[in-house]
Design goal:
Layout (H helix, E strand, L loop, with lengths): L6 E4 L5 H12 L3 E6 L2 H14 L4 E5 L5 H14 L5 E4 L13 H29 L2 E6 L12 H21 L4 E6 L18 H13 L5 H13 L4 E2 L4 H11 L1 H19 L1
Parallel strand pairs: 1-2, 1-4, 2-3, 4-5, 5-6, 6-7
Helix pairs in contact: 1-2, 1-7, 4-5, 6-9, 8-9
Length: 273
């Protein structure tokens, strides 16, 4: 798929990867609804993009996990530009470190990192099947293929996001619905450093693990890779290519991989202390 003249919705578009995706899409000729739970941030990103590419974006405050808000975003896109061609389920949260996390925190992580994707797909996929095409882009994480030292809520919800994207592709890929799943490691966003700033040893270890595993990319670099992967209709988008080798090693000998991860976590915690 080429994105020029297509209509896209980007959740979590007020900063980080989402803002970079909206910028790259507009520069490539797409029309974009920039959405974020922080309406001020979404409007600011939209205004900045429109200053360079007039009339290419509208901004909106929305909860990416709220079905009514998703309906409203799709309706906004249709009024402003036309039917939605691409949906970037990009909004995400890290979640608290450790096992002692209350049910509310679990519910929030699953809502934003997983259910937001499911709810958007339930609305859009039937429309795309009627039209014969559509593109769903899920922002998961390398943690969804490997794991996340520190946060169980993040690791579990991102694994589930990968699983849902896989299922969408298997179920509807021969009916015109394309699916891509973005699984980066370290990206220079506020989310990357939340663990370090949490005051929790496991949280700090989580940030050290990601930063130490490979290059920390800028959001604009990730956005460029995403657009290239969409053009190729590639399912798994790995801005850090070494993730694929890590994933292969995990699958080749799961017990060995788990032992290695425990050793790695112990070393990180020792360094953090």
């Amino acid at each position: 798929m080429r994105v020029a003249q297509k209509v896209a919705v980007v959740t979590g578009g007020g900063a980080g990867i989402g803002a970079a995706l909206a910028t790259a899409l507009a520069a490539a000729g797409a029309r974009v609804v920039v959405s974020d739970i922080d309406e001020t941030a979404a409007l600011a990103v939209s205004a900045r993009i429109n200053a360079e590419h007039p009339g290419t974006t509208v901004g909106s405050g929305a909860d990416a996990a709220d079905t009514a808000d998703i309906h409203a975003l799709i309706a906004l896109a249709e009024r402003a530009f036309g039917p939605v061609d691409l949906y970037f389920a990009n909004a995400g949260i890290t979640g608290a470190p450790g096992l002692d996390v209350d049910e509310r925190a679990w519910d929030q992580s699953l809502a934003v990192n997983l259910h937001a994707h499911i709810r958007a797909a339930r609305i859009l996929v039937p429309q795309w099947l009627e039209r014969g095409e559509g593109y769903f882009v899920s922002t998961a994480s390398a943690a969804g293929l490997l794991t996340q030292i520190g946060s169980a809520t993040y690791s579990v919800s991102k694994h589930a996001a990968v699983g849902f994207a896989e299922w969408l592709s298997v179920t509807y890929g021969d009916q015109g619905v394309r699916v891509s799943c973005l699984c980066p490691m370290g990206v220079n966003t506020a989310l990357l450093y939340e663990g370090r700033d949490s005051g929790d040893l496991l949280g700090a270890a989580a940030t050290r693990a990601v930063v130490g595993a490979g290059e920390v990319l800028e959001p604009a670099e990730v956005a460029e890779i995403v657009l290239e992967s969409i053009a190729a209709e590639q399912f798994l988008i790995l801005p850090h290519p070494q993730v694929l080798e890590m994933y292969r090693n995990k699958g080749a000998d799961y017990d060995r991989w788990l032992r290695g991860m425990r050793r790695y976590q112990a070393a990180l915690l020792a360094e953090t202390r």
